[in-house]
Design goal:
- About 30% of the residues lie in helices and about 25% in strands.
- The protein is built from five helices and seven strands; from the N terminus they run βααβββαβαβαβ.
- Bound molecules: coenzyme A (COA).
- Coenzyme A binds next to β4, α3 and α4.
- The site of coenzyme A has 16 residues, from β4, α3 and α4.
Length: about 170
Amino acid sequence: MFKIRKASKSDSAGISRLTKKFSTTLSRGPEEISRLARNFFVAENQKGKIVGCCGFKKWDSDAEIIALIVDSPYQKKGLASRLFGKVLGQLKKTKSVEKIFVLSTKDVAEKIFSPAGFFPAGIQMFSRKVGEDCRRCRKNRLDCKGRYLCDEIVLVYKNPKGRRNLK
Ligand SMILES: CC(C)(COP(=O)(O)OP(=O)(O)OC[C@H]1O[C@@H](n2cnc3c(N)ncnc32)[C@H](O)[C@@H]1OP(=O)(O)O)[C@@H](O)C(=O)NCCC(=O)NCCS
């Protein structure tokens, strides 16, 4: 019923539609999505419409899992687990990737990322991410009562196939 496949540049619009609809954190513009499109897997319904996506962004020798999204009518059917599994599987085989990390809310982390072997970590470990992405994130500010809006946690997975992690 649903096809999970590697994305290409021509899927940028479909991926952008999902990120625009669901992202409450970072707003990624069309150029960024187009640049990253080949790092994505997408889920297609029978009509060929993109109903889910998950990708990664490389930060030196680390890789961040980004934009794990499944459109509302298609949720709770296991699509996120399949999409995430594909991206993680690809990254695990990549020797130049030492650490794989993701930013997520606690509930999603507990359901999807912790069971796959991801552990809570500090964002300071990923200083380029903080300097480039967190800086422009909608949640990186205080609300009117002075409370910090970011409710995301960082989870990390050490890639056993990563060159520097090999014993
Ligand atoms: C989070 C999201 C990707 C899950 O997609 P999905 O296709 O419904 O997930 P799956 O069907 O693969 O479910 C995987 C597991 O997570 C659980 N789960 C799914 N969404 C959840 C949520 N929002 N909170 C808690 N648990 C959730 C499912 O119940 C399932 O658990 P089970 O295996 O014990 O039944 C989807 O709800 C979504 O796109 N949300 C908006 C964007 C978002 O928050 N993305 C996460 C960014 S890291």
